[in-house]
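User: Study the fold:
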Amino acid sequence: MAEEVMNKEDNKEKKEFKKENKEFKKSDRKPRRENRPAKVEDEFDKKTVDINRISKTVKGGRKPRFNAIVCVGNHNGKVGIGMGKASEVTLAIEKATVDAKRHVIDVALKGTTIPHEIDGIFETTKIIMMPSSEGNGVIAGGAVRDVVELAGIKDITTKLYGSNNPVNCVKATFEGLKQLRTAEQIAHLRGVSVEKLG
């Protein structure tokens, strides 16, 4: 009898200990996904310029991958480009978007156009960008148009020489936009007033 009583008491203690443990674990749990804060949207719009299917030949055969080039911008003087490679298209675009946001630059604007004519050169691609009067619109093709519009330029004339490869076009345009300077910036660099620049 004494043994039975002892066993019952032991069982009760075990049950109580298990209950305490469960309560402790419940309170220690992380909040559910529903309670997590919503993702904050940033100021940049993105545009996928080009996606290439590439393959690597390995011992077991060909291994397909995807290469994406993405352009981001806020339509107000900020633009960036990036590239990403992955085994899936969506992953490649995500990587390229992150890379583009890391390489955002400020573009000098004069109203709705650019302050002066500039040449953007990358490899065998050369792009001449010329300012246009208001209402003229964006005269540019494919990849160049994507970068220019995301930068916030509404009136511009461009001419492409050499390779029309989308990657080269985007990088040449980006290089050209990097070199743009307003009259105020040039005057500040030279240490003179804007009037003296003539």
Summary: The longest helix spans residues 2-28. The mean pLDDT is 82. The chain is about 35% helix and 30% strand. The beta strands are 45-58, 61-73, 78-86, 104-106, 118-122, 125-131, 138-139, 156-162.
